[in-house]
Amino acid sequence: MIVNAENAILGRIGTHVAKELLSGGKVQVINAEKIVISGAPTYFQDKLRARRNVTNKRNPENVSRWPRVPHMLVRRIIRAMLPYGTQRGRDAYHRLFVCSGVPEGVDVSTATVFKDATAHRLRKSTTIAKVCSHFGY
Q1: At what angle do helices 10-22 and 70-79 cross, to 10 degrees?
Q2: Three-class SS state of 96
Q3: SS3 of residue 68 by DSSP
Q4: pTM (2 d.p.)
């Protein structure tokens, strides 16, 4: 299954993708840098900054990783929607492929677009690429 994520809300598209992965399908998400996050842009940036700054005093290397690259950040957020602690969740996560832009050989006209995930009515929103640019992408 190929999903075109251009101008789609991150949480809504993530739930559709997670359900498909848990049912045993392979999913490829294209145009990941154009995914929209609803709400004030500074709120999500502050939330992500707080998650990136979490440390472990006992073992500083044992911290959760939050990437700066848009397609890896989308992949990490979808991972949080899966039961990653179980083998079923890990297998589902390995069937997920997220790409920035459109890779060669993929036809955009055949890609799935979820109607309930479009962001045409949002007042306050930002894209994943803009959020990642604040963290050095």
Answers
A1: 60
A2: strand
A3: coil
A4: 0.83
